[in-house]
Design a protein that fits this description.
By secondary structure, the protein is mainly alpha-helical. The protein is built from eight helices and three strands. The chain has two domains: 115 residues; 147 residues, no CATH class. 76% of the residues lie in helices and 3% in strands. The longest helix has 36 residues. This is Chromosome partitioning protein ParB.
Amino acid sequence: MDFVVVILAVLLYLTATFLILPGLLRQSEINKKVVLGIAFVALILHFSTLVEGIFAPYGQNMSILNVASLVSSIISLVLTLAMFKTRLWFLLPIAYGFSCLSLIAAEFVPGTFITHFEHSPGLIVHITLALFSYATLMIAALYAMQLAWLDFKLKQKTSQALNPNLPPLMKVERQLFNIILIGNGLLTLTLMSGPLFVEDFLSSGKTHKALLSFIAWLVFNVLLWGHYKLGWRGKKVTWFSIIGAFLLTLAYFGSRFVREIILT
């Protein structure tokens, strides 16, 4: 990766974050055009580092840190685009912070995990579904945390709950379950495509990924059932969302983190 491009992208993400924080803390107006303009430039630079880091002459380098950087860029892009329809100022600093960390880690802790997508189009389908299902359900977990925070502020009857830069509580809840429905649908397709396109999908080295992903799928299905059939709200929703996202993180990154980072 180009060190200068990485540093510039990080600085732009941080600039956008620092322009957002006063509006969240002091309820002052946030200059939407300036913040999103800076964020989009940061995203362009972020994606350029991904192209350089992943697409090597000898294959595709899907190291754990490159994948983490890719996921963080997808999350940041989706949330930034969503700002044109809703107020997600609370979530953007978190997303941009993850993007900064993943960029720095991918630059200073290089790793190699070479794949050859050109030999397996089906594998591209499976990995694309996996990345987007994970990114979507991580966004859902962020929404759940925002929902819990807004609910807490409303119960405390603080002025922060009426911050014009924050979305209404009920709107956040509706959006949360729409996102979970989409993410869980993508996760379903990911689990279905695994045995079709991944060699030795249930081999000893991959069984835990399939098992943890399936348990996460069950968690999100129970959450959806509990909400629509039993009217679950509040803390249950938050905890189920976070637990599901945590299980997916273990499934996608757990063993590879040990092999590629700790044992290298």
